[in-house]
Design goal:
Blueprint: H1 35-39, H2 54-82, H3 87-103, H4 105-121, H5 126-132, H6 136-151, E1 159-164, E2 170-174, E3 180-184, H7 190-196, E4 202-206
Parallel strand pairs: 3-4
Antiparallel strand pairs: 1-2
Helix pairs in contact: 3-6
Length: about 220
């Protein structure tokens, strides 16, 4: 009851992420539990990826945040330019990217060979290694995929719907670019080219470490 002399105590709202170990304060061990058991629930100075100490993790996080902010700002500036690029220019850029990929076939295969060797050393699963692998056929398919995108009608600037209000005001719904797209993906170096194929948007792809040498960056 909320109005009498005896009021009901409502439980506090859970902290952000409670239930997954996030945002929870350390609690004393419950009765019957040993200190060793309780220590399993407490953060360790070397916890987290790579076993970094809090100071090192904070410094690394700050550098990463600054780097991502710079990348995002540059991508945003480029997106404004790409939004107004004529269809003919985008089509030409896609064809040039496809030609550049074909011209760099041998270099890509050599870089991918080193990626695959590193993947075997790290004992990645056969499925991941297969996704990572590039050969002449796969590189040709990547280039062909960009040319297929170039052959599609430009979706930017299409009038999707239009109507007129009783007061005479004309309204239209027109398609526009999304802007900046961030993409994180696993051992598939071809995805970098697929992401870049969205010629009206500025894609910021990030492949996994296994594909870092042969990740294709469209010109």
């Amino acid at each position: 009851m909320l109005g009498g002399s005896a009021q009901r105590c409502l439980p506090p709202l859970p902290l952000a992420g409670e239930g997954r170990g996030e945002g929870m304060a350390a609690r004393p061990p419950a009765a019957g539990r040993s200190m060793a058991d309780a220590a399993l629930t407490l953060p360790s100075p070397a916890s987290g990826r790579g076993g970094a100490f809090p100071e090192e993790k904070s410094s690394a996080s700050g550098k990463l945040a600054a780097e991502m902010h710079a990348i995002g700002a540059a991508a945003r500036a480029a997106a404004r330019t790409l939004a107004t690029v004529p269809s003919a220019s985008k089509t030409k850029a896609l064809h040039e990217a496809a030609a550049a990929i074909r011209a760099a076939r041998d270099e890509l295969i050599e870089a991918n060979r080193r990626d695959v060797a590193s993947a075997h050393e790290k004992r990645l699963s056969p499925a991941l290694v297969d996704r990572l692998m590039l050969d002449a056929g796969r590189i040709a398919a990547i280039a062909r995929g960009l040319e297929e995108v170039a052959a599609l009608p430009d979706p930017v600037g299409r009038t999707l719907a239009e109507w007129q209000r009783p007061n005479g005001l004309a309204i239209a719904r027109v398609s526009v670019p999304l802007g900046v797209i961030g993409i994180i993906y696993e051992s598939r170096p071809n995805v970098t080219a697929d992401a870049g194929g969205s010629a009206s948007n500025r894609a910021t792809p990030r492949s996994c470490a296994a594909a870092r040498r042969a990740s294709i960056r469209p010109p």
